[in-house]
Amino acid sequence: MNFLLETLQLILMSIYYNIEAFVRLFIPFKKKNVTGEIVLITGAGSGIGRLMAEKFASLGVSLVLWDVNQEGMKETARLVKEKGATRVHYYMCDCSDKAKVYRVADQVKREVGDVSILINNAGIVTGRNFMDAPDSLIEKTIEVNTMAHFWTYKAFLPAMTANNHGHLVSVASTAGMIGVNGLADYCASKFAAIGFAESVALELLATGKDGVKTTIVCPHFMNTGMFDGCNSKWPLLVPVLDPDYVATKIIEAILTDQVYLLLPKSMYILMGMKKSDLLPRHARRIVTPFQHSEVVTVHAQTAQYSHTHW
Length: 310
Hints:
By secondary structure, the protein is an alpha/beta fold. The protein has a single domain, classed as 3-Layer(aba) Sandwich (Rossmann fold), CATH 3.40.50.720. It is about 45% helix and about 20% strand. A seven-stranded parallel beta sheet has the order 3-2-1-4-5-6-8, sandwiched between helices. It has a two-stranded antiparallel ribbon with strand order 7-9. It has a two-stranded antiparallel ribbon with strand order 10-11.
């Protein structure tokens, strides 16, 4: 009898959450008030990190910016102050270094307070075929794109769970949901980041910490310069995205406690097709919306290697 009840519950809850997710595509939920929250953004010295900081500037939050690019952070701080932010703090931190993350995190807690919205945004890409990528760059990709999330969660999640209040945001990629030619290490790191974020989200629910919200962001490639040489097979259906649009959508997802954000919206359909057992193996390659040219200019536009060319 328990089996039948549990099966029925699973079916009903699946239907409910799928309907809820479908409705969210067209009718956004009420936005929450984040005034007074402490928002930490990694990779805030440039790119999408800077844009998110600018969009938070008018929402009454305290902004904490992390990057290894001191000048980039100063410029971001200047821009967000121009847009109305009154409480802005920035710290140099290599998020791939566990000891540095813990040290700077303690400094933030002392000088600013407990972070209540953590946005893991920093990421790097080698842009080389797997056998051509140096071991050191593969290791660094995993350290920045995946392991850094472990250390920032370890540093800031305890206060969130103690208060049963907070928000964890993982800026991943659709390349963390579908393999891309020439980006094996990047895809692996983003797959891992998504799996990690999903697992922690389930742990929070299982332990009754439903006040700590989670959002996993999976955008298609953006024209930030990080993926020069990569383009879309179908630019009308799956365009290379404008960073400002992506930043706007991420902020909206945070304010409405959206669990998953795929961009553009057509990716929801493509991911469903890709994961469907109805598609034969060779047909799944057709669903991959990415093209990767032989010559790629890669910009490490991140908290770790801002505007460094490989």
